[in-house]
Specification:
Blueprint: H1 3-14, H2 29-38, E1 46-48, E2 57-59, H3 64-67, E3 75-81, E4 88-89, E5 101-105, E6 116-117, E7 126-130, E8 147-155, E9 175-177, E10 253-255, E11 279-281, E12 305-306, H4 328-337, H5 343-349
Parallel strand pairs: 8-9, 10-11, 11-12
Antiparallel strand pairs: 1-2, 3-7, 3-8, 4-6, 5-7
Length: 351
């Protein structure tokens, strides 16, 4: 088969109707080489069109992803929705970005061209394969209210940089498997698990947070969370921790002795409404650069043990409500441990 005939066949199979050179859309010489190799073997490329607002995507066969993972890395996700008469998204498309998702129902090899399930689907599982080009998981499952379980089965590349609000308001999410999760280059995790009110535990032992700068609201509203082990977290670059554990009303203890807070500026409402929390290890906390700290422990009504000996709070910072509705025992300890606060500031932290 001569080269011009191959090119003609490629263009015919791709069937891209625009004025731009069709071959020019191909991503690399390697990609072009794969097309030429596959044509004689009848392994032709498939066109995946998600909707009119997202560009057509050219792909080699899904089976090739693993074999050529160093070039065509992918992330395979399996979801289990709640059975019943529900109608809801199972993934969020960003229409303004080049995000490419391959979606299949359990026993259906045909790709699904929508991002929601209907009451008549009777879905047991949803399989989603995410293309190697995707760099952001921002809002990926946000407000997918009726998903019960998420399992990241394969995760080849470490190109994801943003996981903000990734599982935000997944109200029914009970199980999440992150053992293959790669967070090596993630910088933003704010609201990542926000309002996941059915999660009782999350295994974050494989999380690499070396580059993360934002933990704001990360576990905010995880009211069923009974245990949380963050001893492997690296917080050297984090600047924002406000509302991080706010509303974790089932947590009884939290060991943050490994946290480096040298760069943190925001700690407001960090443990607010952690009503079951009896002990927090903050022995390593450095508050020298904190500019927001109000209502930090507000409504931690069960909290009795706390070490604030390293807390140094500047008088010009708003400390109002820092121990609002806390026990008298805790207030007394705070008064002896926190240094350099004016009388007015001390009065405001208990309001």
């Amino acid at each position: 088969m001569n080269s011009q005939k191959i090119l003609n066949e490629v263009e015919e199979k791709l069937n891209i109707n625009n004025s731009e050179s069709k071959i020019g859309l191909l991503k690399s010489d390697f990609f072009l080489q794969k097309i030429f190799e596959n044509l004689p073997k009848k392994k032709l490329l498939e066109i995946i069109k998600y909707n009119n607002n997202i560009k057509k995507r050219i792909n080699i066969n899904i089976k090739d992803y693993k074999e050529f993972s160093e070039i065509y890395s992918s992330i395979e996700i399996e979801l289990i929705p709640i059975q019943g008469n529900k109608y809801n998204n199972f993934i969020n498309f960003d229409k303004n970005a080049d995000l490419y998702f391959h979606i299949y129902f359990t026993d259906n090899k045909e790709e699904i061209k929508r991002n929601y399930f209907r009451k008549n689907d009777n879905i047991a599982k949803i399989n989603i394969i995410i293309d190697y080009q995707v760099k952001s998981f921002n809002d990926l499952f946000s407000e997918s209210y009726y998903i019960e379980s998420i399992n990241f089965k394969k995760f080849y590349r470490n190109n994801i940089t943003n996981m903000a609000s990734m599982f935000f308001r997944c109200y029914e999410l009970k199980k999440i498997y992150l053992s293959n999760f790669n967070t090596n280059n993630v910088t933003d995790m704010h609201f990542m698990f926000g309002s996941c009110q059915s999660l009782k535990k999350i295994n974050l032992s494989k999380f690499n947070t070396n580059k993360v700068t934002n933990f704001r609201n990360m576990f905010d509203g995880c009211s069923s969370l009974k245990e949380l082990n963050l001893t492997n977290f690296n917080t050297n670059n984090v600047t924002e921790m406000s509302y991080m554990f706010s509303g974790c009303s089932s947590l009884k203890e939290l060991n943050l002795s490994n946290f480096n807070t040298n760069k943190v500026t925001g700690m407001s409402f960090m443990f607010s409404r952690c009503s079951s929390l009896k002990e927090i290890n903050l022995s390593n906390f450095n508050t020298n650069n904190v500019t927001e700290i109000r209502f930090m422990f507000s409504r931690c009504s069960s909290l009795k043990e706390i070490n604030l000996s390293n807390f140094k709070i500047k008088n010009e910072i708003d400390v109002s409500g820092m121990f609002y509705e806390c026990s008298e025992e805790l207030k007394k300890k705070a008064k002896t441990q926190i240094k350099n606060l004016s009388d007015d500031a001390f009065r405001s932290i208990f309001r």
